[in-house]
Amino acid sequence: MGPYLKIVSLQNSLWLASDRKVFRFRYINEERKVLDILVDTCQFQRALDYVRDDPEKYDMILDIYAEHMFTTNKEEFIKSVKIFAHFTSHFEAMALRFVECGDLKALKIFLVGCHSTLSQRV
């Protein structure tokens, strides 16, 4: 008789049974690992789609994405500035960063974006 193989998934466990042995594989918090992989491979849009329903993780991924665009891609520099404008916690550091790099256009876009974000919250 050939090998018997059955796979069952129950409560964060994957059970694999053959004619001679039974194996149990547990998976815990796989979402975190998926996000780490997507961010490490610079697949930011997929990561944002993955966490769309979790505002805290969405903001975290968006912040990492904006930082990546700011430091590596000069064509998307202005887009990163607009994203940074949505994070008031970075206000002083980001404003100083734009002043130090001498890009007054980016600083203006950042300040206008911060102002509109704060106006929407009030």
Short description:
This protein is 60% helix and 14% strand. It has 122 residues and is α+β, with helices and mostly antiparallel strands.
Number of helices: 6
Specify the biggest β-sheet.
3 strands, antiparallel
How much helicity do the residues have? 55-70%
The CA-CA distance between the termini, in Å, is 73 Å
Arithmetic mean of pLDDT: 78
Low-confidence stretches: none
In spatial order, strands of the major sheet run 1-2-3
Structural class assignment: alpha+beta
Shape descriptor: elongated
Describe the overall structure.
The structure is a single chain. The protein is of the alpha+beta class and 122 residues long. It has a domain at 42-120. It has helices at residues 30-40, 44-50, 55-72, 77-84, 91-101, 104-121, and strands at 5-10, 13-18, 22-26. A hairpin with a 2-residue loop joins strand 1 (5-10) and strand 2 (13-18). Helix 5 packs antiparallel against helix 6 (104-121). The N and C termini lie far apart (73 Å). The model has no long low-confidence stretch (mean pLDDT 78). It is found in: Late endosome membrane. GO terms for molecular function: protein-macromolecule adaptor activity; zinc ion binding. Keywords: Metal-binding, Zinc, Zinc-finger. It is a peripheral membrane protein. This is Vacuolar protein sorting-associated protein 18 homolog.
